[in-house]
């Protein structure tokens, strides 16, 4: 029924500056299977049916990240646009940078369905999707044909059945280097056979050495590593040391978690990675730990449970230079971006900051770090 209704509309309608209608649509979308609802959201974005959510620039939010000057620190996390279908459309939703993927060298169907479960009372999701995507060549051609027009990250992953995951990442590096401003090495996905093989320090070191040896010249993008929130502090310190030695440009803290906090209720027994509100405390704690380990040597991307300006502010003070969100949009819609940024600006001014960079890591003591400025 919904498919027939959507087919009646023209394929390109550009709508801008309308009130937030998502609360009206949410009951309909959430009556559908999560993946079906997500597909309709992507189709609506592709056709221009989703109203733009312009974010008025506030000077206090301006920041720099990996050589880009951004109007604000909030980006779209990987997982929403796995195949690069709506990257340019998401800039119109207010994000300052976009990360597409995860993309594997070969097309991949992912794990068996059902594999995505909403936990609405906790504003959370459990997924075990397993990197379903169209494959590197298709996604690269799509991005090349329609450049997003803003800072673009591409999340890279090894095929689940690959026996040479390093070779997978080398192939992905060569394919996407001309297209991405940064490439994220997703070394922490809990949902595929090769998703976490590089959480072993020696293998991670080998991967980074192999990638750094590729002669890309002017096309070399920044490499970002996405780490797991489930690492203990000892293993975390080992991996961060390897990343710094391997000249990683930034660290994303972090991925979904296999931990199951109490009170999750329905679907808590499902296998997969938990994202959303229950992840906030643990991921923010880990962010502060990583900030202490790296000092100011590399910037950090803070993600995991952001759903308000207060959440964003806590991540910034814990050491994040920029932020990413996704799960909260499932419950709040794209209008959330502007609300988070407005609240974040108010909190910065409340505490006497005049720039966002002044607040980065302000709650973390990194005075022992020799590179602190």
Description:
There is one protein chain. This protein has 13 helices and 13 strands. With 373 residues, it is of the alpha/beta class. It has a single domain (19-359), classed as TIM Barrel. The strands form three sheets. It has an eight-stranded parallel β-barrel. The protein has a three-stranded antiparallel sheet with strand order 5-6-11, with no helix packed on it. A two-stranded antiparallel ribbon has the order 1-2. Strand 9, helix 8 and strand 10 form a beta-alpha-beta unit. Helix 8 packs across helix 9. The longest helix is centred in the C-terminal third of the chain and has 15 residues, at 280-294. 47% of the residues are buried. The model is unreliable at 1-18 (pLDDT under 50).
Question: Could you provide a short overview of the structure?
Answer:
By secondary structure, the protein is of the alpha/beta class. Helix content is 34%, strand content 15%.
Which SSEs are present, and which pair or pack?
Layout: H1 2-7, H2 22-29, H3 34-46, E1 63-65, E2 68-70, E3 74-76, H4 87-91, E4 97-103, E5 116-119, E6 124-127, H5 136-145, E7 151-156, H6 165-176, E8 182-186, H7 201-212, E9 222-227, H8 233-245, E10 250-253, E11 273-276, H9 280-294, E12 300-303, H10 309-317, E13 322-325, H11 327-332, H12 336-350, H13 356-359
Helix pairs in contact: 6-7, 7-8, 8-9, 9-10, 10-12
């Amino acid at each position: 029924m919904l498919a027939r209704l959507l087919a009646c509309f023209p394929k390109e309608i550009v709508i801008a500056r309308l009130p937030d209608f998502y609360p009206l649509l949410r009951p309909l979308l959430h009556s559908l299977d999560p993946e079906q609802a997500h597909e309709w959201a992507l189709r609506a974005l592709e056709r221009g049916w989703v109203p733009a959510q312009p974010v008025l620039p506030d000077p206090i939010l301006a920041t720099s990240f990996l050589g880009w000057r951004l109007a604000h620190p909030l980006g779209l996390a990987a997982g929403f646009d796995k195949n690069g279908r709506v990257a340019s459309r998401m800039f119109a939703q207010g994000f300052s940078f976009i990360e597409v993927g995860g993309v594997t060298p070969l097309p991949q169907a992912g794990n068996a369905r059902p594999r995505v479960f909403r936990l609405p009372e906790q504003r959370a999701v459990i997924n075990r999707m397993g990197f379903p995507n169209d494959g590197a060549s298709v996604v690269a051609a799509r991005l090349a044909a329609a450049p997003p027009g803003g800072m673009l990250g591409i999340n890279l992953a090894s095929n689940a059945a690959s026996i040479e995951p390093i070779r997978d990442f080398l192939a992905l590096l060569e394919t996407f280097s001309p297209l991405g401003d940064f490439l994220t090495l997703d070394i922490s996905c809990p949902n595929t056979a090769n998703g976490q093989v590089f959480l072993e320090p020696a293998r991670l070191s080998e991967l980074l050495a192999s990638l750094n040896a590729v002669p890309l010249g002017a096309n070399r993008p920044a490499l970002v590593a996405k780490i797991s929130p489930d690492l203990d502090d000892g293993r975390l310190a080992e991996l961060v040391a390897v990343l710094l030695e391997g000249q990683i440009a930034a660290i994303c803290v972090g991925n979904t978690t296999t931990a199951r906090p109490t009170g999750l209720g329905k679907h808590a027994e499902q296998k997969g990675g938990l994202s959303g509100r229950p992840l906030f405390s643990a991921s923010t704690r880990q962010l502060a730990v990583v900030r202490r380990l790296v000092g100011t040597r590399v910037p950090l991307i803070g993600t995991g449970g952001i759903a308000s300006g207060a959440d964003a502010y806590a991540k910034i003070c814990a050491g994040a230079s920029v932020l990413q969100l996704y799960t909260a949009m499932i419950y709040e819609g794209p209008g959330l971006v502007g609300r988070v940024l407005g609240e974040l600006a108010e909190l910065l001014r409340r505490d006497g900051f005049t720039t966002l960079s002044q607040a980065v890591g302000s709650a973390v003591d990194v005075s022992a770090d020799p590179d602190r400025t």
